[in-house]
């Protein structure tokens, strides 16, 4: 185990996929306490078992948390702060997608659900994370008062195009990226963890042009 990371971490959408992999990596690389959150409690238990198999004494707390519910988010962050004393790293990863449905064929409830989780859910979490972090002791250049990572997508920089329409997902990821820029002091550092190709890293201007219907 290496010690690249320190302190307490909180990860949403940790029942599988990127969230679970992040939890495993954090446990391997120095985080001492971990709170994993999701609506899928069976998946969270599996995540915890995987981590405990590697580090039997590692402290993992499972939280059933729906990021659409501001009350659940607030209570979850309060529980973490009460149990662990501080929050050093937060990863806002929970999200869903909808592919293959064009805008004029999509039900409003689907559009609303995607944005409520992928965009507003991130905002709800980072709001409570910031509230917790700004009150904490500043531990210096490396840790500061804490770090927030918003897991986005390359489709926060471009469109999926006509071959794979997903307007609410693209909209939410663009919004998430814009909301993840550094904020004025004394808020803790922000980081946007954006999954994108090297081509997009080199030039964010290579957007897909609008396509005629």
UniProtKB/TrEMBL annotation:
SUPFAM superfamilies: NAD(P)-binding Rossmann-fold domains (SSF51735)
InterPro entries in the record: NAD(P)-bd_dom_sf (IPR036291), SDR_fam (IPR002347)
Gene3D superfamilies tied to this protein: NAD(P)-binding Rossmann-like Domain (3.40.50.720)
Molecular function GO terms recorded: oxidoreductase activity, acting on the CH-OH group of donors, NAD or NADP as acceptor
Origin species: Diaporthe helianthi
Pfam family, one: adh_short
Coiled coil, from the record: none
Family indicated by similarity: Belongs to the short-chain dehydrogenases/reductases (SDR) family.
Domain of life: Eukaryota
Name by which UniProt lists this protein: 3-oxoacyl-(Acyl-carrier-protein) reductase
